[in-house]
Inverse folding.
C-alpha cells in the first residue's frame, strides 16, 4: 500500500516513465470497458510501455481458434496480458499456455484489479484498512468475491448483504473466511441490507445486472428490491462512513443519485485510483522477473 501511494504521487507528476520501456502489453478484452481499459492504457503509456489492443471479436478466437493456440502465440509477442473475459477459465488458459504474466482485468469469478484500487481508496480516506468494517450490499458477484478476499488479507471485517440465491461464490467465501481468521478479522453473509449497514465504516454496492446477465433483468429487479444504498442505509452506518461503487452506476436502482453525489461518496476518487492501481500492478507483475 505504501508503494502504491508513492507511485500515485509520482504518476500524478509525470507523463512518461521508464518502468515498462520496451515492454508490449496486450489488452485481451471480451467485455466492454471504460475504466479498466482506459486506466491500463494510460498507466502503460505513462510507464513507458506500449499497448496492443486485442478485441476478442477481431481475433481468430471469434472464428473458433482455441484459446491455448492464441495464448501460445501471444506469449511469443508480448510481455504481459491484461484479460477482461466472460469465463475465468479463459484467464487460466491464457496463463497456462502463454508463459507470460496474465492480469485479471475482470472475469465472471473475480475482479481483483478493481479491488486493489478500492482498498487503496479506503486507505487514502480512512488512513487504514485493517480493523474497519466494509458492508457490501447487492449481488455477490465478481467484485464482491474479490472484496471478500482483499479485506480479509488486510485484516478488515466484511459483511455482504445479498438476496437469497445471490450469495458470493462458496469456494471464495471459504478462502476469505480462512484468511480472515488468520488476519484477526471476520467475514459474514446476511440477507438484510440494514443489518449489514449497521455500524459500517464503508458502504459498497455494484450493479444488479452485470454484463452477460441481461436476460435475467426482470428476475433480478424483483430479487434486489430493497437492496438499494440510499439515505436510510447511510444513516445506519457509522458516522463518517464512506460510500463506494465500482461503476457504471444505475442511479435509482442499486444507489440513489443523492447518495452517489453526497460528500460521503468516494466514487470518483475510487475511479481515478484505478489508474494508479493499474500502474502499481503492472510495475510489480511485469517487472517481477
Amino acid at each position: 500500500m505504501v508503494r502504491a501511494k508513492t507511485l500515485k504521487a509520482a504518476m500524478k507528476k509525470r507523463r512518461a516513465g521508464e518502468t515498462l520501456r520496451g515492454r508490449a502489453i496486450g489488452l485481451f478484452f471480451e467485455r466492454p470497458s471504460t475504466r479498466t481499459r482506459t486506466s491500463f492504457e494510460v498507466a502503460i503509456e505513462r510507464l513507458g510501455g506500449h499497448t496492443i489492443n486485442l478485441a476478442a471479436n477481431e481475433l481468430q478466437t471469434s472464428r473458433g481458434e482455441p484459446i491455448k493456440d492464441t495464448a501460445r502465440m501471444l506469449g511469443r509477442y508480448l510481455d504481459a496480458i491484461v484479460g477482461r473475459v466472460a469465463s475465468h477459465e479463459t484467464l487460466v488458459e491464457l496463463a497456462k499456455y502463454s508463459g507470460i504474466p496474465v492480469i485479471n482485468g475482470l472475469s465472471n469469478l473475480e475482479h481483483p484489479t478493481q479491488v486493489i484500487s478500492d482498498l487503496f481508496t479506503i486507505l487514502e480516506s480512512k488512513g487504514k484498512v485493517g480493523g474497519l468494517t466494509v458492508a457490501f450490499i447487492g449481488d455477490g458477484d465478481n467484485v464482491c468475491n474479490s472484496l471478500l478476499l482483499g479485506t480479509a488479507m488486510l485484516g478488515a471485517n466484511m459483511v455482504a448483504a445479498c438476496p437469497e440465491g445471490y450469495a458470493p461464490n462458496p469456494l471464495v467465501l471459504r478462502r476469505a473466511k480462512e484468511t480472515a481468521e488468520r488476519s484477526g478479522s471476520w467475514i459474514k453473509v446476511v440477507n438484510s441490507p440494514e443489518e449489514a449497514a449497521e455500524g459500517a465504516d464503508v458502504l459498497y454496492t455494484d450493479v444488479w445486472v452485470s454484463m452477460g446477465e441481461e436476460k435475467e433483468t426482470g428476475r433480478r429487479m424483483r430479487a434486489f428490491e430493497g437492496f438499494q444504498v440510499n439515505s436510510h442505509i447511510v444513516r445506519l452506518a457509522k458516522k463518517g462512513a464512506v460510500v463506494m461503487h465500482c461503476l457504471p452506476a444505475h442511479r435509482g436502482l442499486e444507489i440513489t443519485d443523492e447518495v452517489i453525489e453526497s460528500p460521503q461518496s468516494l466514487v470518483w476518487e475510487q475511479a481515478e485510483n484505478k489508474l494508479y492501481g493499474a500502474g502499481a500492478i503492472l510495475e510489480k507483475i511485469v517487472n517481477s522477473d
In short: The CA atoms of residues 72 and 207 lie 35 Å apart.
